[in-house]
Amino acid sequence: MKRIVSKKALKNGISTFQKEFRKHLATFITGAFSFVAALLWRDTIQSFLEKYQTAIQESLPIKDLWLTQFLTAFGVTVVAVVVIIIISRVLKPE
Prior knowledge:
This protein is mainly alpha-helical. The chain has 2 domains: 1-41; 52-94. The protein has 3 helices and no strands.
């Protein structure tokens, strides 16, 4: 059995596809830029830790590098979660 599709229905289908494609493409591009920014921040934090490693470790009760790295990762995670919560509330669709 053949199914005949009208031109109007075909145009609507193509239009819907284009909108969805653009939406997903925008999400992909945003994610790619976010990933690059995250890598840059990682390098920045790592350079900071390498430069001030001695001063940071002297201010801590335990002098291990892993503790400094752990506390930094924990701090960055807390900040990231707070920012994500704020952004999700501001950009919440109504």
